[in-house]
Write a sequence for this structure.
């Protein structure tokens, strides 16, 4: 009987390796979850931002608005 | 870039001092203190030129070099007049999903990190086309 490659692989991995893979999988899922946090904002969300007039360049009537979130350091 | 798209692009700068950058918060507050005296963008440009030299004496020195009222500027810094406003910007950014700097939202579409100008042109042109 030919066993499935997945089953063969499972038996080929030592317990120590399994722990490493489990940790790696956990980290991957964590990174993926973090990435999902960097979602595109809801349409029009930037229009509802509090705007400090002194921190704006360009006319309010401009068809394109760039909101820059930045850190000086 | 703003000159190139004169009248068609508006830039809104939002404070996003990363908590891991200990000198960022006072620098952001200082920029707003300069803005209180009408020199926000001039001070903003100085901060980017001089980063990361943002100790208090540095911040005051930049203000003096821009002919700002020193006493008023120092009072603004020491009273943390704009701390809450900076924190509000940061909270807004987090709410929008911002996790790193710089993050740009071009008509709401994120562009994360430093990019060549061509990428900005492409994103702006896309946004302009979408508005037609």
């Amino acid at each position: 009987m030919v066993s499935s490659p997945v089953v063969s692989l499972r038996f080929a991995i030592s317990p120590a390796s399994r722990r490493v893979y489990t940790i790696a999988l956990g980290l991957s899922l964590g990174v993926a979850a973090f990435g999902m946090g960097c979602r595109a904002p809801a349409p029009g969300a930037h229009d509802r931002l509090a705007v400090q007039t002194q921190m704006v360049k360009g006319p309010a009537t401009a068809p394109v608005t760039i909101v820059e979130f930045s850190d000086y350091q | 870039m703003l000159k190139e798209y004169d009248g068609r692009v508006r830039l809104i700068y939002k404070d996003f001092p990363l908590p891991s950058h200990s000198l960022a918060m006072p620098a952001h507050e200082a920029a707003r203190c300069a803005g209180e005296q009408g020199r926000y963008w001039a001070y903003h440009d100085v901060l980017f030129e001089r980063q990361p030299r943002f100790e208090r004496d540095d911040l005051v020195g930049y203000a003096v070099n821009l002919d700002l009222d020193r006493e008023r500027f120092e009072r603004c810094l020491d009273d943390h007049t704009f701390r809450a406003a900076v924190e509000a910007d940061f909270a807004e950014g987090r709410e929008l999903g911002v996790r790193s700097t710089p993050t740009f939202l071009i008509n709401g579409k994120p562009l994360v990190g430093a990019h060549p100008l061509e990428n900005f042109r492409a994103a702006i042109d896309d946004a302009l086309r979408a508005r037609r």
Remarks:
- Chain A touches chain B at residues 34, 37-46, 49-52, 54-73 (CB under 8 Å).
- Chain A has two helices and two strands.
- Residues 1-15, 20-38 of chain A have pLDDT under 50 and may be disordered.
